[in-house]
Amino acid sequence: MTAAAGQDLRIVTSRFEVEDGHTMAGYERTGGYAGLRRALEMAPAEVHGEVRAASLLGRGGAGFPAGVKWGFCPPGVWPRYLVVNGDESEPGTYKDRLLMERDPHQLIEGCLIACYALGLSQCFLYVRGEMAHAQERLASALNEAYEAGYVGRNVLGADDFSVDITLHWGAGAYIVGEETALIESLEGSRGMPRLKPPYFPASIGLYGKPTIVNNVETLANLPWIVSNGGAAFAAMGAETSTGTRVFAVSGHVVSPGVFEVPFGTTTFRDIIFDPRYAGGLHPGRNLKTFIPGGASAPWFFEEHLDIPLEKATVDKAGSMLGSGAIVVMDNTTDVVKACHNVVRFFARESCGKCTPCREGTSWLEKILSRILAGQGRPQDLDLLMDVCDNISPGIHWPPRQTTICPLGPSAVSPIASALERFRGEFEAYLPGTAVSVSTKSEVAS
Amino acid sequence: MARLSPANLMVAHEIIGRYPVPRSALIPLLHLAQEQDGYVAEDSMAHIAELVGVTPAEVMGTCSFYEMLKRAPVGDYMVNICHGISCHLLGASELIHHAESILGVKSGRTTEDGKITLEAVECIAACTEAPCLQVNYRYRNRVTAEDFDQLVGELRAGSAGVAPHGNLAKVRQHVSEDRWAGVSPPDGQGEPPWMTRNPSDDGVGS
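^ inputs. structure came back:
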């Protein structure tokens, strides 16, 4: 398994090659829990200030600044909760599982720092159900951390700071990665997103109380930020995308892998072609397209390779960095099949709460299946776009929503991208109009 | 089949005690029931309903939403082949076809000997290791047809080192009484004491 590298500074993956980095002994030996000790010497508001100064963008998908999200807790309303989103399941995304398996104490330390900074009285660590190994690594690490006095009653002997971390796990549902669905699931319900507003659970979340929902990688950055200062973090990467970020590069590349790189300065060309990273395409192949940020993201092409992995630039170019998932497709790819694959995912994972998504995604999947089976109708390509337009009016980027959450509009991205660029490949699957007519007349005669 | 055993009931109470509202323990308790019986039996749903104070219908409502929770017996081993986009690009469809022909069942079905249930599943977060699969939620990476045949042989011989379906993490969270800070109901809590700290205080930290 590849994980890592280059000569760049690594923050969250620094212990990936440390044999016992997942144990208390390995973690403490490599500087672990120094960030928590430092935080406890500061006032909670100062810790929050460092995270603001770091301009740490959320690493889950939306890329919202964590320090700003933290500020949405209404003053004077208690208790406040922390929910860790470890439900990584966006196709192409592979980083949070590694962070939980290989450096569970780093995540725990990040949770404790967040709880201290914001006055969060309990933390729920929601791990995807299918990740049995991550669950047991976190359980072991939590058991160790409780016994060593880092978690639970009187953290590090402080008589005024006590916080519990409850390990929780899901049972298989992509939609639970949406933060309000995650909260529903954590309350023991079906994982369906809640109606907005309120837009942020920071105002009304778990049990109706202010709740911060942060991604695993986001929280894993906190020990470093507190130890080294928010300014040092902000000095890394680009001005608007600071620090480092973990990307998984998969698909048709020589060395698929998970790489932590400076955020905002590395380009797609670097991470896909540089031998330090994914090492380029196989000999004799050409780039057809690539998904820059998980299955929900519109596709990119050759002309986008020199765009930096920087949030604002990628947004402006018409897609998103999303969950740090780059999926590369070379010229051997059947784009109609690839498009169907992604759309089928959203059709299967729609929770069924909103009509445009529930009906629309499965319509899209059925139309694409029919086209692939050679039974497409001449009007099917326009019909696909029409259904897309009903799910997400205007087919804009960022998408407009007729639904509570972005799952439905996400199914529009691959179709809009692939149809615009490779319409001919879709048409090639359609029985020729003339052929259809003559077949019909033969049948009739 | 069964309500939770006395030993599992103790585990269940410990789990419930970690949440401010008992209902939050529902999914972990459903996993516990599945660990006990290999699937979630109707009697265990009724038992869980009693434990967290909801109706059996509400437990069924939650249970039926999540793919991992099986309400009928499945094979000893769930073999879940990923067909997410990254695995699709590197031969997932071919691997699934191969699996179906070797096992003699379509995905979603269990082999006649009751050993193996085959499923094609969505992305399982091992995209750089495509094509991948999980056996009872334990990974096998970059799986070839030969690897698959070998795996099936090991599963049938019981030598794959994988616990029967229902078993997830081998380690449970367990906190001794004196280390647990204590969970309070969501209502009636005030500002946590450390929030009034200011930087000039000393004697805090380690």
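Residues 407-429 of chain A form the longest helix (23 residues). The domain at 24-234 of chain A is CATH 3.40.50.11540 (Rossmann fold).
thumbs up if we can close this ticket
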